[in-house]
Amino acid sequence: MAEAHQAVAFQFTVTPEGIDLQMSHQALTEIYLSGMRSWKKRIIRLKNSVITGVYPASPSSWLFVVIAILATMYTRSDPSMGLIAKIQEHLPVSQSMSTQCQAVVSAVLFSTMLWLLLIFTMRLCLKQLLSYHRWMFEQHGKMSNTTKVWVALVRIFSGRKPLLYSYQGSLPNLPVPAIKDTVKRYLESVRPLMDDTKYERMTKLAEEFESSLGNRLQWYLKLKALWASNYVSDWWEEYIYLRGRSPIMVNSNYYGMDFLYVTPTPIQAARAGNSIHAFFLYRRKLNKEEIKPSRIPGTVIPLCAAQCERMFNTTRTPGEETDTVQHWQDSDYIVVYHRGRYFRLRVYQAGRLLSPREIEFQIQRILDDPSPPCKGEAKLGALTAGDRIPWAKARMKYFSSGVNKRSLDCIEKAAFFVALDDDEQGMMGDDPAASLDRYAKSLLHGKCYDRWFDKSFSVVYYKNGKNGINAEHSWADAPVLSHLWEFTLAFDSFQLGYNAEGHCKGDVDSSLPRPQKLSWEIPPECEEQISQSLAVAQALADDVDFHVFPFQDFGKGKIKKCRVSPDAFIQMALQLAYYRDQKRFCLTYEASMTRLFREGRTETVRSCTNESRAFVQAFDADVCSRLFRTALEKHQLLYRLAMTGAGIDRHLFCLYVVSKYLGVESPFLKEVLSEPWRLSTSQTPVQLSEMFDPVNHPEYVSPGGGFGPVADDGYGVSYCVVGDCMINFHISCKRSCPVTDTHKFGAQIRKALHDLLQLLSPTQKDHKQCCRSDVGYT
């Protein structure tokens, strides 16, 4: 128990001669260095707050304004038009201050007020400029003169070298669409899914809602929009995520995969050492706001960075009615799970971040530790995988005091969670396709007890050196986490690297204290609850079917040559594939971001439209090509409307929430919110392509990640467009549903992609080898 002694700064013993006080120099040093690190972080936060607060100006610009005003005063000019004299008259000064000194102080005060006014004006101008969205609806490659002027003004008012959160105060608020526009778009979106009788009934419900209750609900929503930064995000987080009482495993959490074709090292501990070090380097950059603000690719338009704030040191805690997201300012350790035991691993020693080789050394200590789990400890994580109410009750009853509370606090306050698996995963063996499917299921749910699904994210390291990530969804959306994941993968392989034996580079300080094994006292009643939660989670996990495949016959390069949006192309392929698979159309969900606005998250693009239905039904007709282009244009229009705050579903969702607060029922809203999304889709963006080397190292590609099905009789489809020649698909469904099959649907997607490309470029007969890489499976 050396680590326990090191945690005590001093010990004392009462003897007949008095008190024998024993000081621990090492512990006091640790306390001092920890305090210094904490104060450094506070100073950095304060400095960044000042820089961000005055953006797009800079703190040094204040001195420039002061000098300019003083200089004009000495030339006997009065740029203040008498205001400096007025300030001097009302200046509370001591008798000892000379008239000239009073004039200087008054000039400095005027300069400061002028400087603040200029900052406010610049920020207001930038906010108005960022509220302009017409550029998004212009034809690709044809920029209007208005947009050219707008781009120039955005560059001027954006300032230089912005920090991560510099644009937050200048981002516009999400607008509330007109209720008649939302209702009109909604009716248009459900027309291809309803016969005449059902559509007529829904139209009457919509008209009644718009003319009566809708206006009342809209008034309250506009009032909230004036008061809050974003009228959607807080309600979306609470009611869609935190108030859900079903398991978050599979239903809410999502995953991300490692490189597809390469494993940088086969040594489990070494892979963990490099990537854990990279995670903490990213957190350091995040705390210092040194990460560049995300922008719409190819533009100067910034995206909201608010979701980054809770990336680390965050956990979701269960409650009987609603969960909460807790975030701590700092944490200098991670919690590691291995063979049923939980370990606390400190990654800072004497105020410095451990090197990758030292973290590898500590991870290997955990792997070699022969100690057995405490009674009830091995499957404790199943509580986070089961229903939320039993977990909330168990947490209150068995983990609110004593050693269990201390150990649970340790997990929840950790920077993130690490799981060391004894399995081997990745694309391998005689059946690489099946191995990818197993890999996806392992990352999404594991054994249902070897992940801590409440943590903001958990990193899994496999025996063969592969890794992956599982993320809780309430605190942020996938693009935010994928930015972290891409950085970690790239930094691990291209910056840190490994030695010839596959170990991390550098030396080891063998005097490092051993990782601390957490202790538990789990009573039999709690063990029974763990078993019940595990049974619920296991049934859910067993019912999930996955199919993951990289499509390499062609990619966005060939699609763009046909002057078509790759995303719209893939969405039309999914519509065609689903119709061939199910012989019907369905309500389709595609996630679109609304981070053009402050605290924006997502909006829904309803991809099944009248135009896409007409195209699919006429696929073999002569007019098919024209209908296809029309469907693509319609999808792009809907996507742009969603991005610019003119979507359908978030507005209707918030109107529904207001109706519940007011205690009124709306048959229209009730029916809208109960419609199942049988095809739920999302694209995982590639954001840090500059950190990789696709020319010299094309094999270093990640297939992205995926999620579970939203409807019991539907599909979940995630896709990631990598480079010009690859599209990765992650398809999920329920095995218990007799009409869905991921592999059959995957085959339909492949066929649809080829058919659509053939439709756009009929002169090219064979696309199968146009982009195929020399690596990977075919």
From TrEMBL:
Active site: H473
Protein keywords: Acyltransferase, Fatty acid metabolism, Lipid metabolism, Membrane, Mitochondrion, Transferase, Transmembrane, Transmembrane helix, Transport
Domain spans labelled Choline/carnitine acyltransferase: 174-750
Cellular location(s): Mitochondrion outer membrane
Cellular component annotations (GO), alphabetically ordered: mitochondrial outer membrane
Catalytic activity as recorded in UniProt: (R)-carnitine + hexadecanoyl-CoA = O-hexadecanoyl-(R)-carnitine + CoA
Membrane-spanning intervals of the chain: 50-74, 103-126
Location, primary (coarse class): mitochondrion
GO biological process: carnitine metabolic process; fatty acid beta-oxidation; long-chain fatty acid transport
EC number: 2.3.1.21
Gene3D superfamilies: 6.10.250.1760, Chloramphenicol acetyltransferase-like domain, Choline/Carnitine o-acyltransferase, domain 2
Stored Pfam families: Carn_acyltransf, CPT_N
Membrane topology term: Multi-pass membrane protein
Carnitine O-palmitoyltransferase N-terminal domain sequence ranges: 1-47
Pathway(s) annotated for this protein in UniProt: Lipid metabolism; fatty acid beta-oxidation
Family: Belongs to the carnitine/choline acetyltransferase family.
Name of the protein: carnitine O-palmitoyltransferase
Source organism of this protein record: Lates calcarifer (Barramundi)
Lineage of source species: Eukaryota, Metazoa, Chordata, Craniata, Vertebrata
